[in-house]
Structure formats: structure tokens, C-alpha cells
Amino acid sequence: MKKKIEMKVTNTAAGAATKTAGAAVLPTAMAAYDKKNKQPMKGTNKMKSESKTAPTTKVPLVVTTEHRGVFFGYGVPTTEKVIRLEQARMCVKWTSDVRGVVGLAANGPTKDCRIGPAAPAITLQKVTSIMEVSPEAEAKWKLEPWS
User: What's the rounded Cα separation, in Å, for the pair 24 and 137?
Assistant: First the structure.
């Protein structure tokens, strides 16, 4: 025998409608969600989905690829294997005073490195890492050292 639960709709201080059943307070959308099928129940209002849009602000990045390429440019950080960089430069050579590839993102290239000129844009495939660049490092990348 099924028990009938009476649902009472009330307004909260924020103006959002909630349904109460006993002591439980559930948002309206959650009360109409079918957990088994993972979708809104038929005959109810559809749930509002959370915005899953990625940020579109371009930031300075150092990107490495499977082919051992190291690039600097402006793009949107992602976890994808493909990224588009604008004002992209390639690091042809860095010296030990940089202290590794992460040093290029943290401190920037030194005068003994070889940094190519900027291309308007590049799309990189098979990305292995994306590092955000410090303001100090960004300024050094723009100097295009080539010894």
C-alpha cells in the first residue's frame, strides 16, 4: 500500500518556490526529477540546467605538445587535446638558467633562449600541457630573445 504524502508549496524569503513534505525542503525542480532515468519527470516543468559554458577570456599560456613543441600565446585554458593560440610564438631553444619548461611559464625566457616571432594564430594538436603564464614571464616572451 502506497502512502500519500501531501505537498505544500511555500515561498522562501528569496522568492523561490519550495515544496515541503514533512521536514524535508526540496527545490521545486528537484522534487520533479526522476532519479532512476536521470531526467525530469513527464508532465512537469523541465529543470533549469546549470551554465556549463567555458570562460572565453584569453590569457597568456605556455602550451606543450606530444611532438615536443613549446609555444606561448593567448588562449582559453582547456583540458582538450586541441587549443588555438593567438599571437603565438615558438620556443626553439631554452637554456638551463630557465630551469625547465615550467620556468618558461613562471619566469619567462632568458636572453640566451631562442623565441620565434609571433604568428597571428595557431591551432595546436596533441596538447600535453597548458600552463598559465605569470605577468613577469609574459613581458619576457614579448621581447623575443634570440641568441
Answer: 53
* pLDDT, position 46: 47
Cα separation, 104 vs 8, in Å, equals 60
DSSP secondary structure code for residue 80 in this structure:
S
Q: Which residues pair with 64 in a beta bridge?
A: 70, 129
Q: What is the pLDDT of residue 56?
A: 79
* pLDDT averages per 10-residue partition of the chain, 147 residues: 54 48 47 63 52 74 97 96 97 95 96 95 97 97 89
Cα–Cα distance, 124 to 70 (Å, whole number): 10
| Cβ contacts of 98 within 8 Å, gap of 6 or more | 104, 107, 109, 110, 113
Longest Cα–Cα distance of the chain, Å, equals 84
In the chain, domain spans:
8-40, 59-142
CATH topology of domain 59-142: SH3 type barrels. (2.30.30)
**Per-residue model confidence (pLDDT) at position 40:** 64
